[in-house]
Amino acid sequence: MNLTHSPTSPYVRKVLVLIAETGLTGITLTPASGTPIAPDAGVVERNPLGKIPALDRPDGPTLYDSRVICQYLNAQAGAGLYPAAPRLWDTLTVEATADGILDAALLMVYETRIRPEEMRFAPWVEGQWSKIDRALDVLETRWTDHLNGPLDMGQIATACALGYLDFRHAARQWRQSRPHLAAWDATFAARPSMQATQPQG
């Protein structure tokens, strides 16, 4: 299998953490770069949306979207990172919350890196942060017990989302008023899989 990736992508990091946690082997990494207005040609060949990660597999067409790839690799490994229902619905909801944080955080980065300064709209950026702020509050108040439970993809996705906030939006100080989430993150971020996949660049 071949994974098209970027070392700074938090969506790719989710996949890499899963690979490390499950011990999967035989996956090569192909670097890629690009933006929504100048996508990488190699990525577009694999994913018409021009997004990473994308996974070439021997048993079918290329898979894309980190949640799809993670479900596939979890099944290949038989790892149980997507547990049986009813816990499955909580796992998927936590993963979706974390990915929503990433979606908004990445849009904030694009606003300053891609859009010309005279076209930037600060209220739109703050609107994205408001989504993140609300999601973090929900993780703090509603999902602490789940995060402290058996390892699953909801936890991995949350840790990668929080790591991306530290990487790109540290000045926002997301830990303020969220002691439970901050304490959980400090413990989870120390896992070897997280240490080995810290974003660079």
Automatic annotation (TrEMBL):
This is Glutathione S-transferase. InterPro entries: Glutathione-S-Trfase_C_sf (IPR036282), Glutathione_S-Trfase_N (IPR004045), Thioredoxin-like_sf (IPR036249). It comes from Pseudotabrizicola alkalilacus. Residues 1-81 form the GST N-terminal domain. GO terms for molecular function: transferase activity. The keyword Ligase does not apply. Keywords: Transferase.
